[in-house]
Amino acid sequence: MQLNWKWSSEKQYPLCVKLVVSILFLGLAFRLLFYRTNAFLNVSETLVSVDFQENRDRIPENGTQLSNNFNRSVSVDLDQSRYELTGKLNQYPENSTQASENPSVSPDLEQNKGQIDEHNGAHQPDNPKPSVSDSFPESRDQITKKGLEYAGFLIWHDYNNAEKCDLFTGDWIPSSSGPRYTNETCSLIEGHQNCMKNGRPDTGYLYWRWNPRDCELRPFDAELFLELMRNKSWAFIGDSISRNHVQSLLCTLSKVEQAVEVYHDEQYRSKRWHFPSYNFTVSVLWSPFLAKAATFEDYNGVSTADIQLHLDKLDSAWTNEFQSLDYMIFSSGKWFLKTAFYYENDTTLGCHNCPNKNQTELGFDFSYRKVLQNVFNFIVSSNHTGTIIYTTSSPDHFENGEWYNGGSCRRTEPVKEGELEVNELNKILRAVEMEEFEKAAAKASEWGINLKLLDVMQLSLLRPDGHPGLYRYFHPYDMDNSTKIFYDCLHWCLPGPIDSWNDLLMEMVLR
């Protein structure tokens, strides 16, 4: 039988053509795949170089494999939330901040302690981590969280919530933690506010904490605060409420280190303390009017002559120190209620509460407004690069009279909102300071001045139980019946509600 070879060769010819064409297409596909892979790698390297300018010099040349360590420093994106340093805020040294590679790290103080550079205070972590550029393209509104690893402490700050949070509207809620210090652990408590030592029998006023309604207020962290304030200086400027507040802060910080008093004036009203391990200084500058004034009053508030207040001259006690301070907390108000003669250009302008003196009655609100305008104008035009905080006036809680005619404060628990009203004098003081602060804040924003408000009026109003009352004296009920004593319903027991003001300060510093 003969095979038809002609037919067979004709049938196989198209199969050969198809095989050749298939091989050509397969080769072309491999070539395209290889080309796209190289192009993708080139684009990826370019993107890394653009997004992380500070790491440009660490990117290897093409063809060199990227190390695992470099990849670690790039990947810091969790749940589409960018984490970046808050170290660029002016209160943090530029070379002492570093983003953590692990945003879930606990802020445990003992586990995160590292080594402190002896020369400049910069922290050297036990396990150095690659730094991360802080030049992310997102706007502040797009950043849902920020992380800061500063001197071994990891802080998470939710900026979106913080900007919406009203720290000053809230309630006092029970707290089982109790006071942060006592009269036995802190030696800096002034006698008139040392309620424990003076024999106050109830302790319930020590077991409450301020709770803002819109956000969580973290308790004051003394060790973290001192680390953040390394090589910084603070000053509380104002009257006896400023002194009350600075003692609260110093006692809270004493859990970490005892402050050393390094200065006091002749009357022991202006003082300065130093924390040697942190090179941190805290001052209280006695300036009850914030303006130049001649006062003739002893330590117990007894006057021998009327006050002479110069409305157009600021007090050099604080203006001479202004530029050398990193943080300043101003407060005033109550002294403007006293009888005083007002001066401008060294000429009598009028007075407050001076009947039969042949002077124009101008009122305390007039003088308070004038002085605040001068204070805020000085601050706004100062080009100061630190943080300046104005603390609102706080209410007193005298009931059934004033301090000089039988007024008292006997409550032992906080009250709810609406149970107490701010008295008329405090309403006027508050109206003046809020109006003037609002105008100053707008100007400060334009000029780049960091001016903030610490509004303690409402939270303080709800704590009529926090004052010394008769326990401004040592065991008042053991005193001789012939001794005339008065209730103190203005200042605050230490420890006491004023310690929560430090929680607010801490939050304002972190912001």
TrEMBL record:
Annotated segments matching region Disordered: 91-140
Keywords noted in UniProt: Membrane, Signal-anchor, Transmembrane, Transmembrane helix
Ranges annotated as spanning the membrane: 12-34
Domain (Trichome birefringence-like N-terminal): residue spans on this chain: 163-216
Keyword Transmembrane: yes
Biased composition (Polar residues): 91-105
Pfam family, one: PMR5N
Gene Ontology MF annotations: O-acetyltransferase activity
InterPro entries on file: TBL (IPR029962), TBL_C (IPR026057), TBL_N (IPR025846)
Membrane topology term: Single-pass membrane protein
Coiled-coil region list: none
Source organism, top-level taxon: Eukaryota
Subcellular location: Membrane
Annotated ranges, domain Trichome birefringence-like C-terminal: 219-508
GO CC terms in record: Golgi apparatus; membrane
Sequence similarity: Belongs to the PC-esterase family. TBL subfamily.
Protein name in UniProt: Trichome birefringence-like N-terminal domain-containing protein
